[in-house]
Amino acid sequence: MKDKTRQENHPKLEIRKYQNRRYYDTTNSQHLSMEQIHRKICEGYDIRVVDAKTDEDITAKVLTQILLEYEPKKLDFLSSDLLTQVIRVNDTLLKDFYDVYFGKAFSLFMDSKSNFEKLLRQSHALPGYGKPFDPTLPIASVMEAFNPFGSILRPERPEPSPRDLAKELDAMRQQIEDLKKQTSA
């Protein structure tokens, strides 16, 4: 599964790992320590680590090693039972599970995020609702009272019909009666 969480605009480093456990940044032509690689990742770099002898991509192994050495608290969410099962289970089965499970989980997360954003955009279009989370809206309505051209620029609202007003008045009377009952009880 391709890592969808990576940002394409992050700078990238190509690193080769040699037998003597040294890392060489081929992008910038310099040797790096594990700590320097950790710092580069924290600064926003994406890395790709290749074994110099076999040309095998060992990025995941190096990232795991960095987590173990420099970010051990981030692994606390993995229980001992889960880690034991990971060690015992068949490699192919485990990889397939993680690819499918996390792929779907990430996809569902992105769908939920998209649906939530769509809901916010739709709520903006509902009558009686302003822009969601617009902190300037209350100030704008107050300032409108001081605008001499406000009534000219604002479209005329139709007067509510007597029928609508009567319904609203009946609803308010009912609420008052309900409140009286609650307070007298």
Largest sheet: 4 strands, mixed
**Percent of residues in beta strands:** 5-15%
Strand order of the largest sheet: 3-2-1-4
Average pLDDT number:
80
In whole angstroms, the N-to-C terminal distance is 64 Å
Based on secondary structure, the structural category is alpha+beta
Helix coverage percent: 40-55%
Overall shape: it is elongated
Number of strands: 4
* Helix/strand order: EEEHEHHHHHH
Rg over C-alpha atoms, rounded to the nearest angstrom:
31 Å
| Total of helices | 7
Uncertain runs are 1-7
List keywords for this structure.
alpha+beta, disordered N terminus, 185 residues, 7 helices, elongated, four-stranded mixed beta sheet
Report on this structure.
The chain has 185 residues and is α+β, with helices and mostly antiparallel strands. The protein contains seven helices and four strands, in the order E-E-E-H-E-H-H-H-H-H-H. The chain has a four-stranded mixed sheet with strand order 3-2-1-4. Helix content is 54%, strand content 10%. The longest helix has 35 residues. The protein has a domain of 65 residues. It is elongated. The N terminus is likely disordered. The N and C termini lie far apart (64 Å).
